[in-house]
Amino acid sequence: MHVRRGGKALVRRSIVRTQVVLTACLLTLITLAPAARAKVGTITEFPIPTPGSIPIAIAPGPDGNLWFTEGADESNNIGRITPAGMFTEFPIPTPKSFPNGIAPGPDRNLWFTETSYSANNIGRITPSGMFTEFPIPTPNSYPYVIAPGPDGNLWFTEFGANNIGRITPSGIVTEFAVPTLYAGPIGIAPGPDGNLWFTESGGNRIGRITPSGTFTEFPIPTPSSFPDAIDLGPDGNLWFTEERGNKIGRVTPSGTFTEFPIPTEDSHLQGIAPGPDGNLWFTEFAGNIGRITPSGTITEFAIPRESDGPTGIAPGPDANLWFTEWYGNNIGRITDKPLPAVNLQPDSGPPGTRVQVSGSGFGSFERVGLLFVDSVTGKTLLGKVNTDATGHFSKKGTIPANATLGAQTIKTGGFISGLRATATFTVT
Q1: 152-170 as b/e, with b when 16 or more CB fall inside 10 Å?
Q2: DSSP designation for 167
């Protein structure tokens, strides 16, 4: 099943590792300089094994890979690609299900929507490729995008039924009717306020729903903008694409809008996602990958063939952005310039102090190692931690009992991205 508007096939995309490593390897990793990175905006494409698969949405997985949906009837797969570009494809049990949105769940599985009327399911796939499908109560609901919620459930949009759906990790579905008739909800994402935010393609609004099901709707300034994807930005606001308005929109948690026109006319904006560099990255179906800073400065990067139709986009475990190509039948990667950082709380104290080490700007679901580097006694492993889907982590460590007085260093290093960041802890 394809979605067509104006006679042209368009996509609705969603806005997704553990590694056992010896301490000696960890010490080596963090001691070495970060791996060399290509120039920002460098695009690499990886052909999907199944021809004409129609890749749509993509998300980081908790296994350190990228997972994506293949919407063509002939493929009907969930795909997985490693940071090195190796593919595995898993056939969905229900034929011609038209898998659309995909997102990591709180249970460390991947959850996806089966958009076709004949399927009308929410699917779950484990990192090993085991499927479970859950029927949606409302027939012909046309589920579109799915996202993890702050309440430990998955939330999804029902374009056909005009509902917002919620599914628990055990598969219990609850549906909430959007107040505006024919709103056409498409994109959905968790907000900084503990609520879910979604786009109304037909209602030309941004909607907000609380975990208990209370709605608030905010009209978009540009008429008939056809908002599509939405995601939380590093500035604490919600950012969304306007397919027909040809703008990137920003809305604050209180409902104040700002819109930024795209330099390329008729770009047919699709997906949007935050990058490790502190900016938002988006796809233009007409042939570009775009980047917008929190202040609104836009840069566009042309993919090798404009006809490839980039659609979904997501941060990867290597701290780059990964995207799908609807017509090109590729998974693409565009290099980012991450800004890894680490903060300590407290940043001083006596030996034995418990310290909260928080980091950002690493890869999604990436394993990160923490070291205490003493100027006299050397290195002590404080532990290892996995980042979340946005490259953030937080972990407590204990300053060694034999720590030397004075300024010492805590180092953090990513196992996949090779990124590192340091902070100073003053031993008193």
Answers
A1: ebbbbbbbbbbbbbbbeee
A2: E
Task: Give CA–CA dist 144/103, Å, rounded.
Answer: 12
CB within 8 Å of 278: residues ≥ 6 apart: 234, 293, 294, 339, 361
| Distant-in-sequence, close-in-space partners of 312: CB < 8 Å, separation ≥ 6 | 11, 13, 14, 15, 55, 56, 57, 58, 68, 270, 271, 283, 323, 324
Per-residue pLDDT 10s for the chain (428 aa) are 333 333 333 333 333 333 333 334 444 433 333 445 789 999 999 999 999 999 999 999 999 999 999 999 999 999 999 999 999 999 999 999 999 999 999 999 999 999 999 999 999 999 999 999 999 999 999 999 999 999 999 999 999 999 999 999 999 999 999 999 999 999 999 999 999 999 999 999 999 999 999 999 999 999 999 999 999 999 999 999 999 999 999 999 999 999 999 999 999 999 999 999 999 999 999 999 999 999 999 999 999 988 899 999 999 999 999 999 999 999 999 999 999 999 999 999 999 999 999 999 999 999 999 999 999 999 999 999 999 999 999 999 999 999 999 999 999 999 999 999 999 999 99
Residue 346 to residue 142: CA distance in whole angstroms: 49
DSSP state of 308: G
Q: Could you tell me how far CA 241 lies from the centroid of its own chain?
A: 15
DSSP state of 222: S
Distances in Å between the alpha carbon of 34 and those of 61, 83, 333, 344, 379?
Answer: 23, 16, 19, 21, 18
- Which element (helix H / strand E) includes 24? helix 23-31
Beta strands in 143-268 (DSSP E): 143-148, 154-158, 163-167, 173-177, 185-190, 196-200, 205-209, 215-219, 227-232, 238-242, 247-251, 257-261
Task: Supply the pTM of this predicted model.
Answer: 0.92
